[in-house]
Every structure is written in structure tokens, then in C-alpha cells.
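sorry for the late reply, my laptop died twice this morning and i had to redo everyting from scratch. anyway the thing you sent over, i finally got around to it. pasting the sequence first so we're on the same page, its 686 residues, then the predicted structure underneath. double check i copied it right bc i was rushing
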Amino acid sequence: MTAVLGWLRGLFAVGMLAGFYVVAFTLLVVDTALVVLTLWAMVENPSQAGNWSLALGGSIPAASALLYGIATVSRTEAPPPDAVLLRRADAPGLWRLVEELAGQLRTRPPSRIYLTAQANASVSEDARLLGFAVGERTMSLGVPLLRWLQPMELRAVLCHELGHYAGRHTRFGAITYRGAASLRSTLFRLRMTARSDQGRVGYAWLYQAAIGAYAWMYLRLSLAVRRRQELEADAEAASIVGPEATAQALRAVHALGVTWAGFESRYLRPVQRLGFVPEDVFEAFAAMVDDPPVRTRMAELRAHPVESGRSPLDSHPPLVRRLALIEARPAGPPRTVAEEGPLIADTSPVTRVQRKMLGEAGHAATALPWTEWADLAAEAFAIELASLLLDAASDTRTTARPTLATVLGVLERGEHTELVRRLTDAPEPEEQLTEALYALTGQALAGAGRARWVLSWTQGYLLDCPRDPRGRLDDLVAAAARDRTAVPALRGEFARLGLDIEAPVVLALRTAAAPAGRTTARRSTRSAPDLITQELARQRTVAKVTMGALAVAMVVWGAALLGSDSSQPYPQTYRPGLGLSTTEASPYEPWSHSTYLQPEPSYAASLPAPFITRPLIPLPVADLLLGIHHVVSGDTLSGIACEYGTTVKDLQELNDMGKGTALAVGQTLLIPAQGQSSGSRAASCR
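ok and here's the structure:
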């Protein structure tokens, strides 16, 4: 049954991917047909070609974005950028454990194992022939999982990932990934093109709507299958290690992932932007995990795993549902026994993971022992808030540097509301002001050598002031931030501590003798900006190609338009009742004077009137709206009027003949185009 289900899912994945390319190919065919028809009309009937510049200029950017979005997606999912290949000699215990669990699940083990810096694990397969032929298998395993999961919990995680292999989930996973990645890449470029100047009059918005509709269907159907596969992998893990260990593993991975993400985003990356990192990142994280308040928080996350920010496009089912299904399974003895002992014999791969993780951010940094790095982090966070408060309290009418006394003066004058407005626009500005005043107070004491900052993994920083063991300063700061009448009491406490509030506040990292700078409001990742930069560069190239194509088309259109002018020597001949004739006219001789030609066969070429667009090069009105008749022997003005369906009066007015009707052989008469005559034909014409 598992094999049949796997094949059906494979056919579904192939069909969904093929559907995407069918939609894209259909759009390109329609676009190409439109351009070809427009160019054909531009050459064959240039005066009625329509708005060919819009068709051509709007199609090229949209088609380019569509093709480029598809072509730039790789066929298989690449390992994470911080991944390090783990050889068997580096971790014989881990390789042995993975192969043992794969045997119990009756599936092939992975061919490669990568270590990553993420608190997560994943598997993939480089299958061939659209997933119907087996390929190389890869497992990615995060260092935090190896170091902080219990042995049985780690086995449950490995069994879950190997369960994807056993259920043939990864065989067609590359196809699903390719489809999703192609859709994301294509939609991104179409959206960027639609928002650019060249996309405002183009068809990128139409392509975006069509591809977006298919992406909506594709992601919801494919992700529904992936969520079902996660439940199947959970069941495989529970069958090997038991439901209890599997549930504990899910809870532990959730708590560890939230804690690791907080460590990286709140502490590691901000201080790295200042130029400092811990010598051992995982040792610093271990100190965070060992902190009692952090342990309490992680226990709460394990007991009540709350997921925030879920969306219909999540690839995993809600954790609460997964736990409910696992814990509802009947308990039984585990089929594997946890063995003690190190799984990684050589720690050099872990060191390389750390180096790649820090190098990915693109910031050169100095490595410090984690204790010094922690003190530096606490100082940096306090300095940032203190700097913001001083900036908010500064007076634009003076160049004097604001001090702690400046801030206290603003509070005493009752300018609390204005200070808060200039400080922050956060939802709880009162708390922000209290926090900033605490940071400024502590930094003034630290700069005077009467206190020091220490890192708190839950609060960011704490002030260690030996002369304030009971923390009375905290209460006074909070009161002064709320009520201006409490400011004098705070001034008295500063006097007791021997602090000169008029002295400049030191805004430098004393532990590193370097400026603190800002620790927030900067992006450390380079991928998103690089992606946008590359797309903008591509659009500039496409814009040049589009302008070149428009220039060439304009030259061709102008030549076709001039070639259709009735003054050309060999126009098509029109005779009433006979239609068009391709017989060439006799070569004419040079002009004898401005209004008469040498005798030649009578003909009149009537060009259609233009519509929709105006020609780039204005042509004489007569060439567009009038015909020409060469007078031959026997012609009369009334006969010519009858022949062309006009009146004698119109012919006289058009040819400046006044009331006269005399004609000369070889004379050229302008004939009103059909529908341009002001009156009706004479009765004798009937």
C-alpha cells in the first residue's frame, strides 16, 4: 500500500509541475502570436497596424520575466549555506546510528550527512527521471540538536527523517520543490516587472495574475500532501522509539528552536554587526540554556508548545495536532535502545559550521571569550537606548551635548509627552521611556566607574551597582519616568552615589574600547538585497533590449508606411468594378511642370484611412485621403465624377478649378476617397 501511494503521489507531483509549465508555455505562445500578428500587420498594412509599440514593448519585459523566473531555478534543493559535509571518519557513532535506524525502517540510509547551525533536521533525495528512479540521499542535521537533545529524543528525530525515505516522500520531493521554487521565482520577477516603469503598460500584471492563480492551487494541493507525509513520518518514528519519546522529541525541538532563534537574532547577530563574536558560539548558547530563567521558559515551551505566525502555506501540520495523534497511539516497548557516548569524534566539523555561519552574514568580527562577549553585548544594548534618549532630549537651539541633567530637566518641566513622542512610536511608549532612562542612568554610572553592565539572557542587560544592593535605583527611575514630582528624589540618589549628572555620558564600549553604534535597524542578511539588485540589473538589460527592438520595428514600420505611399512609381492599380490589379504601370517620364504628367493609363490608388494610432512620420493628407486620376482623351469632368462616385462640384473645389470644366490630356486630378464626397452623384450616372 505504501508503494502504491508513493507512486500515486509521484504522478501527482509530476502532473502539478507539468501544469505549471503548460500555463507558462500557453502564455508565451499567446504572447508570441500577438507580437507576430502585430508585426505582420505593421508591414502589410502599416497605416492600420494598431498600437504595435504597446504590443511589442509590453510583451518583451513580461516574457523575459516569465522565462528568467523558470530558468534560474535549480533542479534539486541545495544544502544550506552553512552546511559542512560530515565524513564517516569524523562521526563514526552518528553514521552507525543512522544506518541502524534505517535498517529497522527497511530503507536505504543517506549517502551524505551535513552538519548545519540550525536547530532542525531535514532529508532530500536527488532522484532521476522525474523521481521514478532512485538517487543520492542527503540528511542535514543541526548542531544544536546533537548537543542538547536527549539520546532517545535524537533517535526519534532521526527516525522521523528516515521515515520520509521509507514512505518514498523524498523521491518526488525535488519535483515539488522545483515547482514551488519556480513559482516563487517567477512571481517575484513578474511582480518586480509590473511595478517598474516598463511594466506599467505591459502584460506582466496579466502574467502575474495567471501564474499567481496557479501558484495558489499548486501550493495548497502540494502542501496538503506534504503535511500528510509529516504525519506518516511521525508514525514511523513512534513505531521505533515509542509514542512517548517521539512526543518528547517534538516538544524539545520546538523549545530548542525558539530559544536558538532568540539567541541568534537578539544577541549574536546584533553584536556581530558591531564587530564582535564569541570564540565558541555554541558555548555561549550553552550558557544561555543553563540560565535558570531560560530553563524555566524552555520548560514552558515544552509543556505548552504554542506556534505563532502560522499560515495556510505551512509545510507542517500544527504541532498540537501532531502531538495529539502521536500521544493517542498505543504505547509499546521501543525497538531501539539509547547508547551513551559521543556521536561526533572530531569537533572540527562543528568549528567549520560556526565559521560558515558567521561568515554568511558578511561582517568581519573579532572573536572574544564568551564571557567578555556577553559583557560587551550588555553594554552595547544599554548604550543604544541611552543614545536614543539623549537624541530625543537634545535642544536644536543649542549645540551643547545633552547629558543626564538635560533629560532630567525635560522631565521636571513637564515635557514628558514631547520626549516620548521624539523617543519612540512603539505601542507602549511609557515602558520604552522607563527602559531608556534606566539605560542612560546605568551608562552614566558605568562611565563614572560606579557600576557595570552584566548580560541577562531574558532582559538583555542588568546594572550591577555595589552601592545600590537593594535595587532602590530601579524604583526611583521608574517613578521619575512617570511623574515629574519624583525627579528630585532621583537627583538626590545620584548625589548619594557621587554621580555628576552634568558630565558627558560615555557612549563607548569600555570592554573593547570601541564605539557602540547601533545594534538594531540594520539588515545583516545579504541574500534579499542581492536578489533585488540582480533583478533590477536584469530589468535594465531587458529595457535596453526592448528599446532596441522598438527602434528596429519603428524603422521597418516607417519604411513600410512610406512604401505604401501613392506617389511611388509602381502602385497597385484600381479600376472600378475590376478590383485590384497587379499589372505594372508604364514607366513615367520626368515632370513637365508642377501639375501635369505625361500621358499614361488611367488609375487611381485609394489608401485606407489610419485609425487607433498616429504615424510616427506625418504624411500629406492628400496621400492618405485622396485618389489620383490622369486625364486621357475623351474624359469629361462629369464622367470622371460618375466613375468615382463623386460630384462635379467636389472635383472643382478639390482641384481649384473654380467653375470651369475644361480638361487637358495628361492632367492629374485629385479624387475624393470613398465616403469623402460632400454630395450625391448626378442622376445621369445611374
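Confidence is low (pLDDT under 50) at residues 520-529, 566-625.
thats about all i looked at so far, will dig more tmrw
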